[in-house]
Amino acid sequence: MLDLLQGIRVVSFNHFLFGPMGIQALADLGADVIAIETPEGAWQRHWSSGDIWHDGQGMLHLCTNRNKRSIALDLKSARGKEIALKLVDGADVIAENFRPGVMHKLGFGYAALQARKPALIYASASGYGPDGPYAERPGQDLLAQALFGLMAITGEKATGPRPIGASAVDHHGGALFAMGILAALLRRERTGKGCRVDASLMQAALDLQAESLTAWLNKAEKPADVYARRHVAGWYYAAPYGVYATANGYLALSLCPLPVLGQAIGEPRLASFSEQDSWKRQDEIGELIAAALGKQPTQTWVPLLERAKIWHAPVQDYAEIVAAKRPRSACRRSGSARRRGRSSPNWVSPRSRSTPSPATAWCGSTGLDAIERPCTLAGNTRND
Predict the structure, then answer these.
(1) Checking CA distances to 110, which of 6, 235, 284, 317 falls within 20 to 30 Å?
(2) How crowded is residue 384: how many other Cβ atoms within 10 Å of its Cβ?
(3) Which residues contact 353 (CB under 8 A, 6 or more apart)?
């Protein structure tokens, strides 16, 4: 872990993905994170992405709980509450993502803990915020995608709404959660005052669509729908911005002058379209591009597009990402990895080299590795 938050202690009452992912970011930055679990273990220990298990450990737990310590407490018992309050007294941050009102019923609500420790940062993550019409609804990534537009802009008119292929709202919500906590810690450093931080899946889902929503709200004549086009990535993008099949794969094409693209791929009709056409005739332009690119394999098109200085990328699946040879950034060779004369790995292991996961999002010149403490295994959690 890095040492940027060294000396900051976070007591985490988090479960599922949203909360643990956000607090893991703080742990990766060097905070001392103590995760409080039920005596049976947190929910994420008992459910695994893809139903994939490694020595009894689920993937959801492995991807969100590195660099943390864990303790199992029965918060409904007098002894459990006593221990939890002692942890609160030594904490800089309390973080939780129960439904609104649950922490209050357990005796760990914001008002009670603020009165106990005024300098405390109390961070709450929820589905839809602490109040409002959706507050009591179950908050979950898929449901947030449905309620707040992401499914609509990801799907196509012919096939209907479609969720994003990853838990994007959970992940982005976790990042916003961590960001709010960091800002509150900076404010406390300046003023000595604690405060409450709220993050929600609703906020995260809308924030992910800032560009699309801003465009839609300010468009005088609203479009009939906000579905993605067949080839162009979204209703608010100009052609050719999207994904196209080749003879043996797919290519993503960014924005570029249509005449230049037409010359590169041998489709002279693209030169007849104006810049305004690229916004209004997306489907027609997309079909011409798709027909041309489908005649040759990706390997044929890449050098032609590079020569024409057209931004593009082949679409890679996970196996291709792992197998790809690519340069590592300079920061990957910082610190202890540099001293050992090798680059830090792109994939890191929360437990051992046999259970890899994506590396942390940060790097720096601290001389410290990304993982100091692997996920706490079932049976190794302290019980009190």
Answers:
(1) 6
(2) 13
(3) none
Amino acid identity, position 62 = L
Helix (H) / strand (E) containing 150: helix 150-154
155-184 in b/e burial notation, b at 16+ Cβ within 10 A? beeeeeebbeeebbbbbbbbbbbbebbbeb
For position 328, what pLDDT does the model report? 58
Two tokens at 126? 């929820």
C-alpha 111/C-alpha 114 separation (Å) is 5
* Rounded Cα gap, residues 280 and 318, in angstroms: 35
What region does 234 belong to: left with phi over 0, alpha with psi -120 to 50, or beta? beta
Dmax (CA) of the chain? 77
Helix ranges restricted to H, 281-326 = 282-293, 298-307, 318-323
Q: What is the pTM of this model?
A: 0.90
Distance CA 61, CA 45 (A): 5
Q: Is 46 a catalytic residue?
A: no
Q: Distance of alpha carbon 265 from its chain centroid, rounded?
A: 36
Count of other CB atoms within 10 angstroms of residue 146: 15
| HSE of 309, CA atoms in CB hemisphere, 13 A | 2
Which member of 61, 172, 231, 312 is catalytic? 231
Structure tokens at 357: 């996961």
- In this predicted structure, what is the pLDDT of residue 339? 39
**In 110-233, which ranges are continuous DSSP H helix?**
110-116, 141-147, 150-154, 168-191, 201-208, 210-218
The domain ranges of the chain are 9-208+374-383, 250-314
pLDDT tens-digit map of 328-347: 554 544 444 443 444 433 55
* Alpha-helix runs per DSSP H in 44-122: 59-64, 78-89, 102-106, 110-116
Of 161, 306, 313, nearest to 244 by C-alpha is 313
